[in-house]
Amino acid sequence: MSSIKLIVGLANPGSQYQDTRHNAGAWYVEELARAYNIPFKVENKFHGLFAKGLIGSEEIKLLIPSTFMNLSGKAIQAVANFYKIAPEEILVAHDELDIAPGTLKLKKGGGHGGHNGLRDTISKLGNNKEFIRLRVGIGHPGHKSQVTGYVLGKPSPDDRNAINLAIDEAVRETPTLLNGDWDLAVQRLHSVKTGAE
């Protein structure tokens, strides 16, 4: 398996979206940057906040696109082209409706599942779906007509706490993943249950 060189957290830009469920992917990357003391800076040529630094012994690039969610791929494509990073060397963290708050899933490849950030990323990477996804559970509002309002809303304090605890675990397991120990990282991340059952 090729090693991960770029970690992306999907989000919508602007303070009004900062704490909304759709930005859960970015919460993970922000926490990762904090934990490893890697400062972000605005990088216009990459259409986002960009950072690079050491996580364990690996030099990793971090990106939070500053485009809207449905244009996320533009930023990812810019970094990937500039640094010659293949899709399978990219980890994209994003919010996931299909799993509960406080749970995580790691997967390689797959479709976009209706997620506009993933849809644009796949398209901008030349329809290559082989990037890795860290799916951060946010739960589902129950009906698809409510999804837009739900993802653009803020989680309840309990849900936010569960998501934060799951993200802490993901940050802790990131070096395992970067070392190439995929099975161990998956086993640990998939057993994380921090939400109210």
Cα-based radius of gyration, to the nearest Å: 15 Å
Q: What about the largest sheet? A: 7 strands, mixed
The best one-word shape is: globular
First and last CA, distance: 34 Å
Q: Can you put this structure into words, describing what you see?
A:
There is one protein chain. This protein is α/β, with parallel strands linked by helices. Helix content is 35%, strand content 21%. The protein is built from six helices and seven strands. The protein has a seven-stranded mixed beta sheet with strand order 2-3-4-1-5-7-6, sandwiched between helices. A hairpin with a 4-residue loop joins strand 2 and strand 3. Helix 1 crosses helix 5. The longest helix has 22 residues. The mean pLDDT is 94.
Question: What are the main properties of this structure?
Answer:
EC 3.1.1.29; single chain; 6 helices; alpha/beta; 197 residues; 35% helix; seven-stranded mixed sheet; Pept_tRNA_hydro_sf
